[in-house]
Protein backbone atom coordinates (compact mmCIF):
# COMPACT_ATOMS: atom_id res chain seq x y z
CA UNK A 1 0.00 0.00 0.00
CA UNK A 2 1.36 3.43 -0.94
CA UNK A 3 1.89 5.89 1.89
CA UNK A 4 -0.22 9.03 1.95
CA UNK A 5 1.11 12.56 2.22
CA UNK A 6 3.03 13.79 5.24
CA UNK A 7 0.97 16.49 6.98
CA UNK A 8 2.25 19.31 9.17
CA UNK A 9 -0.23 21.18 11.36
CA UNK A 10 0.79 24.36 13.13
CA UNK A 11 -1.25 26.12 15.79
CA UNK A 12 -0.25 29.77 15.95
CA UNK A 13 -1.29 32.30 18.57
CA UNK A 14 -1.12 35.79 17.04
CA UNK A 15 -0.58 38.93 19.10
CA UNK A 16 -3.74 40.97 19.73
CA UNK A 17 -4.53 43.47 16.98
CA UNK A 18 -2.09 41.89 14.50
CA UNK A 19 -4.38 39.29 12.91
CA UNK A 20 -5.11 41.15 9.66
CA UNK A 21 -1.47 42.00 9.07
CA UNK A 22 -0.47 38.40 9.87
CA UNK A 23 -2.94 37.10 7.26
CA UNK A 24 -1.60 39.54 4.67
CA UNK A 25 2.04 38.61 5.31
CA UNK A 26 1.19 34.88 5.39
CA UNK A 27 -0.25 35.23 1.88
CA UNK A 28 2.78 37.25 0.72
CA UNK A 29 5.33 34.68 1.89
CA UNK A 30 3.29 31.54 1.17
CA UNK A 31 4.98 30.79 -2.11
CA UNK A 32 8.23 30.17 -0.24
CA UNK A 33 6.48 27.01 1.00
CA UNK A 34 4.19 26.11 -1.89
CA UNK A 35 6.87 26.57 -4.57
CA UNK A 36 8.99 23.85 -2.95
CA UNK A 37 8.82 20.81 -5.27
CA UNK A 38 7.74 18.49 -2.42
CA UNK A 39 4.86 20.67 -1.17
CA UNK A 40 1.34 19.52 -2.05
CA UNK A 41 -0.50 22.57 -0.70
CA UNK A 42 -1.01 24.75 2.32
CA UNK A 43 -4.09 26.11 4.14
CA UNK A 44 -4.55 28.92 6.66
CA UNK A 45 -7.58 28.69 8.95
CA UNK A 46 -8.78 31.11 11.61
CA UNK A 47 -10.03 29.49 14.81
CA UNK A 48 -13.10 30.67 16.71
CA UNK A 49 -10.69 31.39 19.57
CA UNK A 50 -9.45 34.97 19.16
CA UNK A 51 -5.96 35.19 17.66
CA UNK A 52 -5.58 31.45 16.99
CA UNK A 53 -4.73 30.19 13.50
CA UNK A 54 -4.09 26.74 12.11
CA UNK A 55 -1.71 26.20 9.21
CA UNK A 56 -1.83 22.84 7.47
CA UNK A 57 0.63 21.85 4.79
CA UNK A 58 0.95 18.55 2.97
CA UNK A 59 4.22 17.12 1.67
CA UNK A 60 5.09 14.18 -0.54
CA UNK A 61 7.01 12.59 2.34
CA UNK A 62 8.64 13.37 5.68
CA UNK A 63 12.28 13.48 4.48
CA UNK A 64 11.45 16.15 1.88
CA UNK A 65 9.56 18.19 4.48
CA UNK A 66 12.53 17.94 6.88
CA UNK A 67 14.79 19.09 4.04
CA UNK A 68 12.58 22.17 3.64
CA UNK A 69 12.34 22.66 7.43
CA UNK A 70 16.13 23.03 7.68
CA UNK A 71 16.51 25.26 4.61
CA UNK A 72 17.27 28.97 4.28
CA UNK A 73 13.91 29.29 2.52
CA UNK A 74 12.10 28.12 5.67
CA UNK A 75 14.21 30.35 7.91
CA UNK A 76 13.21 33.41 5.85
CA UNK A 77 9.54 32.35 5.97
CA UNK A 78 9.63 31.96 9.77
CA UNK A 79 11.50 35.24 10.19
CA UNK A 80 8.76 37.15 8.32
CA UNK A 81 5.97 35.63 10.44
CA UNK A 82 7.69 35.61 13.83
CA UNK A 83 6.84 39.23 14.84
CA UNK A 84 3.12 38.35 14.85
CA UNK A 85 3.42 35.21 16.95
CA UNK A 86 2.96 34.99 20.70
CA UNK A 87 2.97 31.17 20.87
CA UNK A 88 2.23 28.00 19.02
CA UNK A 89 2.87 24.32 18.47
CA UNK A 90 3.53 21.86 15.65
CA UNK A 91 2.13 18.39 15.06
CA UNK A 92 3.09 16.06 12.23
CA UNK A 93 1.22 13.05 10.89
CA UNK A 94 0.81 10.68 7.96
CA UNK A 95 -2.47 10.91 6.02
CA UNK A 96 -3.90 7.39 6.07
CA UNK A 97 -7.04 7.88 3.99
CA UNK A 98 -8.96 10.60 2.16
CA UNK A 99 -12.65 10.49 1.30
CA UNK A 100 -13.52 13.41 -1.00
CA UNK A 101 -16.89 15.03 -0.35
CA UNK A 102 -19.54 15.73 -2.95
CA UNK A 103 -18.56 19.40 -3.16
CA UNK A 104 -14.84 18.70 -3.63
CA UNK A 105 -15.10 18.67 -7.43
CA UNK A 106 -15.37 22.48 -7.39
CA UNK A 107 -12.46 24.88 -7.05
CA UNK A 108 -11.49 26.28 -3.68
CA UNK A 109 -9.38 29.04 -5.25
CA UNK A 110 -11.99 31.63 -4.37
CA UNK A 111 -10.90 31.35 -0.74
CA UNK A 112 -7.47 32.86 -1.35
CA UNK A 113 -7.21 36.18 0.41
CA UNK A 114 -10.89 36.34 1.34
CA UNK A 115 -11.70 37.42 4.92
From TrEMBL:
SUPFAM superfamilies: Dimeric alpha+beta barrel
Entry-linked InterPro entries: ABM_dom, Dimeric_a/b-barrel
Matching PROSITE patterns: ABM
Keyword field: Monooxygenase, Oxidoreductase
Oxidoreductase is among the record's keywords: yes
Domain ABM: 6-93
GO molecular function: monooxygenase activity
A Pfam family reported for this protein in Swiss-Prot or TrEMBL: ABM
Superkingdom in the source lineage: Bacteria
Protein name: Heme-degrading monooxygenase HmoA
Native source organism of the sequence: Micromonospora kangleipakensis
Amino acid sequence: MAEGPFRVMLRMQIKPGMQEEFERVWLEVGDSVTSHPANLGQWLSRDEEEGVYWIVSDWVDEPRFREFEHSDRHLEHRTRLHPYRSGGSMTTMRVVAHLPGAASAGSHGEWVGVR
